[in-house]
Fold this sequence. Notes:
Blueprint: E1 2-3, H1 17-35, H2 55-70, E2 78-82, E3 90-95, E4 100-104, H3 109-124, H4 132-143, H5 167-180, H6 186-196, H7 203-209, H8 213-238
Parallel strand pairs: 2-4
Antiparallel strand pairs: 1-3, 3-4
Amino acid sequence: MLQHGFVSFGNPEGVPEDEVIARRDLRRMDISARSGCCVDFPFSGSCLGGSMMDVRQLRTLFKDFNVEYWGGRLPAYAIHVVAEVTSRGEWGRCLKKRRLIEILRGLPDEDAASTLLHEMAHAAVRHFGHGKPWKREMIRLRSAGAPLTYTDLNIRLDSRSGEPITRRQFRASVQDVLIDASAITLSGAIRHFIQTEGGPPTIAGFLRKYPWARTVFNDEKRENAEKQKRRIEFEAKYCM
C-alpha cells in the first residue's frame, strides 16, 4: 500500500542531479502520451482544468507498464478508482487474491502512475507488505527509469543489523498482510515479518524479545474484522 507522504526527491544512486531531472521530465511526458492526459507536475495536479486519470487510462498504463517493466508477465488485474482506499489514508492497495488494484480518486497523474507501479510491484512478488522482496522490486523499477515519486523514489534495501523492532514497524507489517490474508495467525504474521524485514530467527525467539507483538497482532486482527464487517454491511445496504 502507498500512504500519503511528501518528501523531497532523493537520489540514492548518486546519479547527477541534472540527469535525474531530465529522466523525470521524460517520464512525465511519457505518462502524458500514454494516458492521454496533460500532466502538470509536481504538486499542482493536472492541467486542462485539473482533470485526473480515469479507470480507462490507468488500465492502459497497467498494460504498458506490465510490458515495459515486467515483460508482460504480470497477470491481468482489475483497476478500480475509489473515493477511499482504507481509513488509514492510503493512495492505493493491491488485493492479490481478487486480482484487484485500487487507486485513490483525485490523485495528480504523476502520483497515480507512481501508485500504480507501487501496487504492481506488490503483485510481482510472493510476499505481502513492504519487506525486502518488494523493496528490491521497487529499486529495480527506479533503476529502469520508472516514473516513481515521493517515498517510492527513495526506497533503500536497509538491513536491520540487529536494531530493535518497534511496535509501529510490526503493526504496519500486520496491517499490510491482513489485506490479502485476513485469516493469518500470529505465527504466520511473525514468520512473514522475519522473512521480509528481519529480526529474531524463530517465532518463539521473536515473542520472547517482543512480547507486545501478540497484543499488537490481536488488536489489528480485531480492527480488521470489524472493518470487513462494516464494509459488508454497507455493500449489502447500498450496493445491491
